[in-house]
Design brief:
heterodimer, A: 924 residues, alpha+beta, 8-stranded antiparallel sheet, 12% strand, B: two-stranded antiparallel sheet, 17 strands, globular
């Protein structure tokens, strides 16, 4: 059962987790120990000739804890309260308060977003946007609710497969849709689908098993017991998603679900109830008007009514040439002629018009008088881009038949609906097409001279009419129209049959009414009845209007509801071992299964993702608990007990404290995978509470601090650095959740890499306004090809692939960011204003800002350094009022009218320096 | 920290012939058929279907895989022999022709991917899949910078009209290498380097005073905590301060004499143009920057290739050639390796209707042409050959991995020994392949 590694010995991480006995500690050190962790640490320290460091002071402890557990620093009031809390369990109470904070979930989510390769864009090629924030918000909620890690894992991996899965469980399964997705023109779908499936397999192995599965994609793993066939058996679990391979150009890629928030769901529910009720009233009304209708219809016999043509949103009468500054660009040379009583435009096939202003982006009815002189293919209207990336739609004549064609050439998708009867050549016809976008294929209706036309569908591989930002063109540019056009009218709504008839100068109602009631056909009666209900029956038309309004409200609410990509197993596929891992080189077929070096799946588990998830969190899986516990340890100590958090294989680093690792893993499982319990255990240990100061002795005995004879100083995560500055200044806006936001970044960073800003999303950065500039960094919109620069610079990954530990670097670019990024300068000015509004001597003000920024009282040396700086800067800005005004209005700030700018500038400079200190970016 | 490469060993592995690299990437993939790989057979058989034996069922992009016919399309441009070496280039490249004797033309490069994203990622990181460090990051990691006040690896972008192929930060990213090896973008608008400039209201003397106080505070903290990382942080702020002077000085081209500016062509006066970036590239290597990466966008000519390639040549021919000549006359070319390359080639058959005026060429990974100059690369030669249709390599193939191995060799690095441990294995730029092409040296 146990693995034999390449060197022939049993590899530690594949052996079962057995809870080790706590080492016995004798002597005075006994009292140092707070819990089991300390017994293991102490026993190792003793063998290495080291002793623990003294306990850190309370200022340090509350800063350490607050930063670690919530990702923001403590407030001055919180520090003071903790310092004077004389209760014996003051520390435990503090831990309890922080674990219960909603900021805990936000803080712990960051590492999971790295692991899940979460981003707000697709990553490949032009890197357009996607919507996965509902998954991210679900994650934060689960962490805050302390969902047991086994259940959490099952939902992340296979929430969609749970019996009676809730919306939130389906959303959780979006974990494995966070990988990059491609829709570059010309790409081969199978190639990318293979990448997505492989990414899921590799990510699962890294995050839960600490296995470097990727090494076995092209050949058997060189070092660990994973064959290439086993790679593909694992891969097979993730190979049944109904996904397209090439997708995502319009946002989320299939499969997706709508993920309304609780509030949206409630409103949708209310609307639907009101709609259903109105629909019923409408039906009731319709069936109760027989007598009134008949009376009215009988009375109207023989009378002449006139239906006026509806008013067009845009109209081109085409009576005269356009003026030079008109809304139309003319290509070629139209001839303006009189044809009988009409004044019309004559087209030679090389002429077309382009409507510049306004741009009718929501076209629902197109109509024109048409006089074709040939039966060649000809464009009447088009709203499309042409070329290798052509997409859009056009209304054209195809051998005389009217055809609506929508196309998305790069993805080879098309929708074509065509009329049965051709138009005659060299005769005038009034042509109208109405498009009801909510109606799918049936939403397209053609009329000739006001008469509805029969149609057939030629192709329908495109689900809906494609919207583009291309201008509306007339008679071209492709397949130029030959003949005459007159009186073009465009509407932003789909006209009713009666209205269309009126456009053609036909008045069907008048015609019917002029027929004696007894001679009217069924179809005439039905037309008339429709007319009566819409126009004469006040009750009905009011109900119909209210219904239309409600439906519109529901539609706009629905379009505001976020969708989210989820997993689904509805596309069963065979899995083959791929030679060299290549999508186009299948060899032998395999079925889903787990590596044989690990315990087998229980027989009663289904051989699908749900079964896999259960296997991953089964107590006899030797890897999961060790791997997860190690990452939580890494969170608090900067390094895991296994320093290669992503590799528990033979090439990884063995644990420094193997027994402690196993003890924690066993404790984690037996606590019911209680994540907060594990955090509490770690942060209440004496090990964690040590001072982080070091001495020459400790440095020489343990320069890397592997044995933890002191608490490591840990460089803060990128997000925590920005959030801390916002928090210390008072700018941080603590709203939980919602779509990604766009705080400050230097101009042009997206555009300089973009593809086509008009055609695709997330190509141009538009900065947020107001509160969204100051949200926690976890909510910053993450574009993979250009991550937020002030986050990336502090070692945040691009999220192109799974990462479970960030490196820590120390670079001049980080220094420049802290010095000059408006985020930090504005925060400094904000805090400067706050300190200036306090009364008291300079020294106490200095002490106040140091407490706000660094969470401790400065010593005399520091105070004198800072006062010296403040005085010099005040003198400098006293001589340069313009510069002072510039400095204090960085970002969105208005200059406070009542404060001297020189003083404010000096305080801004001082706070800015505090934001640049090593201490600000390092957890003590 | 992860284990570092070359532990206990001082790079380079052997004497380097190149200390600097300037990679002029022509993004979108220029057509070798129209620029470097003259095929008289295409003129004779213009309009005939590409022989099936030549295509040999190799995969195509979905943009032309279903195109009913694939007629051969001759280049509309004449070719000419240039220099003593008699190199054959298109007449679209008269300036490049004048430096022909400095150039090593390779007509037999080939790659695997058929689309931009993976092919770009491959030529810049050695892998089609994202996540690996870029070539420049490897060079920075392996060799460091000669000038502490400037980044070891600089990146400049030009082109970028709507519809030009997009770029991604991963093309100059550090992947799993420490992030200081990432390419630093030099930008023509806003700060030349992100966050370089003091915020409004802070003058250099005020900044100096702030940094002095900062140093004292950090020093004080170092005394208390004993953490050596604080000393490293103090140094980074001093470097940052020096960059605030050295970068603007570098980017300010007012000290360039008129004849030099003129040599790079009229666009040189336009910040952010390819010409201006070429001149900046020279200024960077002069100052010891290890690796300079240019991207010029707009070579993806699926349609209307005749006009569009002419425009691109007008933008790039003169500045590229001027850069080579300028480096040569300063004696910098001997240890600066210049590479001119796209991410793949283009098809000998046309995309679209051959009898329309606006046909183009689709992506073609089976062969493409690049040139190199300086840095120990043989000059005045043409290497490798394709078949009579410029479709398959028939002589001396050079895979992108081989190109990387050879370029690293010029930098004094054994491509099999420049490695970094990540996720259980030692990674290198050339993955598990690559051979040094000694004929090019």
């Amino acid at each position: 059962m146990f693995a034999i590694d390449a060197r022939g010995a049993e590899h530690w991480s594949y052996t079962p987790i057995v809870r080790p006995a706590l080492p016995r500690i004798v002597g005075p050190a006994q009292s140092w120990s707070e819990n089991g962790i300390d017994r293991f640490i102490l026993s190792m320290l003793t063998t290495k000739g080291l002793t623990p460091s003294p306990r850190a002071d309370r200022e340090t402890l509350i800063r350490r804890l607050t930063l670690d557990l919530t990702g923001t620093p403590p407030t001055v009031e919180e520090i003071q309260a903790f310092q004077v809390d004389s209760r014996p369990d003051a520390y435990e109470r503090l831990v309890q308060r922080l674990l219960a904070s909603h900021r805990f979930g936000e803080q712990m989510a960051v590492a999971w977003l790295d692991a899940a390769r979460y981003a707000d864009t697709h990553g490949y090629h032009m890197d357009a946007h996607r919507e996965m924030w509902r998954w991210r918000d679900g994650l934060i909620a689960a962490l805050n609710a302390n969902m047991p890690f086994d259940q959490f894992s099952i939902e992340q991996l296979a929430g969609d497969l749970l019996p009676n899965a809730t919306t939130e469980q389906k959303i959780a399964s979006g974990f494995h849709r966070n990988h990059m997705i491609n829709f570059e023109d010309g790409s081969i779908a199978a190639e990318y689908r293979t990448e997505y499936v492989a990414d899921r397999a590799v990510t699962t192995a890294t995050v839960w098993l600490g296995m470097t599965l990727a090494c076995a994609r092209c050949h058997d793993h060189f070092y660990d017991p994973i064959s290439q066939a086993e790679f593909f058996r694992f891969y097979a679990f993730f190979n049944h998603v109904p996904e397209n391979g090439i997708d995502g150009d319009q946002g989320n890629a299939a499969p997706t679900i709508l993920a309304p928030t609780a509030e949206q769901e409630q409103r949708l529910c209310d609307l639907q109830r009101r709609i259903s009720s109105l629909e019923k009233q409408l039906r009731d009304r319709e069936s109760s008007v027989d007598r009134e209708f008949e009376r009215w219809a009988a009375q109207q016999g023989g009378s002449k009514r006139r239906t006026d043509p509806p008013i067009a949103t845009y109209r081109l009468p085409l009576d005269n040439p356009f003026g030079p500054a008109g809304a139309v660009t003319v290509t070629g040379e139209p001839v303006w002629i009189a044809d009988g009583t009409r004044r019309v435009a004559l087209f030679n096939g090389n002429t077309h018009f382009e409507m510049r202003q306004p741009d009718p982006s929501d076209i629902a009815t197109l109509s024109a008088w048409v006089f074709p002189t040939t039966r060649d293919e000809a464009t009447l209207f088009a709203k499309a881009r042409y070329g290798p990336h052509s997409r859009g739609f056009e209304l054209r004549l195809n051998e005389g038949r009217l055809e609506l064609r929508a196309f998305d050439q790069p993805r080879k998708r098309e929708l074509r609906v065509i009329t049965i009867d051709p138009l005659p050549t060299s005769q005038w016809r009034q042509v109208t097409v109405t498009i009801d976008r909510t109606g799918g294929l049936g939403g397209v209706k053609f009329y000739v001279d006001g008469v509805p036309q029969s149609t057939r569908t030629l192709t329908s591989t495109l689900p809906s009419i494609v919207s583009t930002t291309a201008p509306l063109t007339i008679a071209g540019p492709e397949a130029g129209f030959r003949g005459m056009l007159d009186d073009i009218r465009i509407f932003d709504r789909a006209l009713t049959p009666t209205e269309v008839a009126a456009l053609a100068g036909v008045d069907p109602v008048a015609e019917i009414l002029s027929t004696p009631p007894a001679s009217r056909t069924d179809s005439q009666n039905s037309w008339l009845r429709g007319y009566y209900l819409d126009n004469i029956d006040r009750v009905y038309s009011q109900l119909a209007n209210s219904l239309a309004e409600l439906r519109q409200e529901k539609r706009s609410l629905e379009s505001a509801v976020s969708s989210v990509m989820v997993m689904a197993d509805s596309a069963p596929r065979k899995t083959f071992v791929l030679r060299n891992g290549r999508y186009d080189a299948p060899t032998s077929e395999v079925v889903a299964g787990v590596p044989s070096a690990l315990p087998a799946m229980h027989e009663d588990l289904p051989r699908n993702r749900l079964g896999l998830a259960h296997w991953i969190v089964s107590p006899d899986n030797p890897l999961t608990a060790r791997v997860v516990v190690n990452r939580i340890w890494q969170h608090h100590f900067g390094h895991g007990l296994v320093r290669t958090a992503d590799d528990f294989g033979t090439q990884g680093t063995p644990p420094t404290h193997p027994q402690l690792l196993d003890w924690l893993a066993a404790e984690f499982v037996s606590s019911g995978w209680d994540v907060k319990h594990l955090h509490r255990l770690i942060v209440t240990s004496a090990t964690y509470r040590q001072s982080s100061h070091t001495t020459a002795d400790r440095q020489s005995l343990d320069s890397e601090n592997r044995w933890l004879s002191r608490m490591p100083r840990v460089r803060l995560a990128a997000e925590t650095i920005r959030d801390s500055a916002l928090f210390a200044s008072g700018l941080l806006v603590q709203r939980v959740g919602g779509p990604g936001v766009f705080p400050y970044q230097p101009a042009g960073l997206w555009r300089e890499l973009a593809y086509d800003p008009d055609e695709f999303t997330a190509q141009t950065f538009v900065q947020s306004k107001g509160a969204d500039l100051y949200r926690r960094s976890i909510y910053t919109f993450y574009k993979r090809s250009v991550p937020p620069p002030n986050i990336e610079v502090f070692d945040a990954p691009s999220r192109e692939q799974c990462f479970v530990s960030r490196p820590t670097t120390n670079t001049p670019a980080q220094a420049l960011t802290l010095m000059n990024d408006v985020t930090f300068v504005e925060a400094a000015a904000e805090l400067a204003e706050r300190v200036m509004r306090r009364s008291g001597p300079l020294q106490s003000k200095v002490s106040f800002v140091v407490q706000r920024v660094l969470g401790r009282t400065p010593d005399d040396t520091e105070v004198s350094i800072l006062i010296g700086l403040w005085q010099d800067q005040r003198d400098l800005y006293g001589d340069a009022p313009d510069r002072a005004a510039e400095l204090v209005t960085n970002g969105n700030r208005l200059p406070p009218p009542d404060l001297p700018h020189a003083g404010l500038a000096a305080w801004t400079a001082l706070v800015s320096v505090l934001f640049q200190t090593d201490e600000f970016v390092v957890r003590p | 920290m992860p284990d570092t490469l070359l532990a206990g060993e001082k790079p380079p592995h052997f004497p380097a012939t190149a200390k600097h690299v300037i990679f002029l990437h022509q993004s979108g993939a220029p057509s070798q058929v129209d620029l470097f790989d003259d095929k008289p057979v295409l003129r004779r058989r213009h309009g005939e279907e590409l022989p099936a034996a030549i295509r040999a069922n190799q995969r195509l992009t979905t943009m032309t895989a279903d195109q009913r016919v694939k007629p051969l399309a001759a280049s509309p441009f004449q070719f000419e022999r240039y220099g003593d070496s008699g190199q054959s280039f298109s007449k679209l490249l008269p300036f490049t022709g004048r430096v022909a004797d400095h150039l090593c033309l390779v007509r037999s490069l080939h790659t695997d991917a058929i689309n931009h994203d993976p092919a770009l990622t491959f030529i810049h990181t050695g892998s089609e899949r994202p996540g690996r460090p870029s070539f420049g990051a490897w060079a920075s990691y392996g060799l460091g910078s000669e000038n502490e006040n400037l980044p070891a690896f600089a990146v400049m972008l030009s082109g970028g009209a709507p519809g030009d192929q997009p770029l991604s930060g991963r093309l100059w990213g550090s992947g799993f290498l420490p992030s200081q090896n990432q390419g630093v973008k030099l930008r023509s608008t806003g700060d030349p380097v992100l966050y370089l400039t003091n915020p409004p209201g802070i003058t250099p003397p005020a900044r100096r005073r702030m940094l002095d106080a900062l140093k004292q505070l950090n020093q004080r903290r170092f005394e208390i905590t004993g953490d050596p990382e604080i000393a490293a942080r103090i140094k980074q702020f001093e470097l940052a301060f020096q960059m605030q002077t050295s970068v603007p000085e570098l980017a300010d081209m007012r000290d360039e004499p008129g004849h030099i500016l003129k040599a790079y062509g009229p666009d040189v006066h336009q910040p952010g143009s390819y010409a201006a970036n070429c001149l900046l590239a020279r200024r960077l290597v002069e100052r010891g920057v290890r690796f300079v990466q240019l991207f010029h966008r707009g070579w993806d000519h699926h349609m209307n290739i005749e006009n569009r390639i002419r425009d691109k040549c007008r933008e790039t021919d003169q500045p590229s050639a001027a850069l080579v000549a300028d480096l040569a006359q300063r004696g910098l070319l001997k240890d600066t390796l210049v590479i001119w390359a796209g991410e793949f080639g283009r098809t000998a058959y046309c995309q679209g209707e051959l009898d329309s005026a606006d046909y183009g060429r689709d992506h073609h990974p089976r062969c493409f042409s690049i040139w190199m100059a300086g840095g120990g690369i043989r000059r005045g030669i043409a290497y490798g050959a394709t078949d009579e249709f410029s479709y398959n390599v028939v002589e001396n193939p050079v895979h992108v991995h081989d190109l990387h191995a050879t370029l690293l060799h010029c930098l004094g690095i054994d491509h099999e020994r420049l490695t970094f441990r990540f996720q259980g294995r030692h990674h290198r730029l050339t993955d598990v392949a690559g051979r040094v092409i000694h004929d090019l040296l």
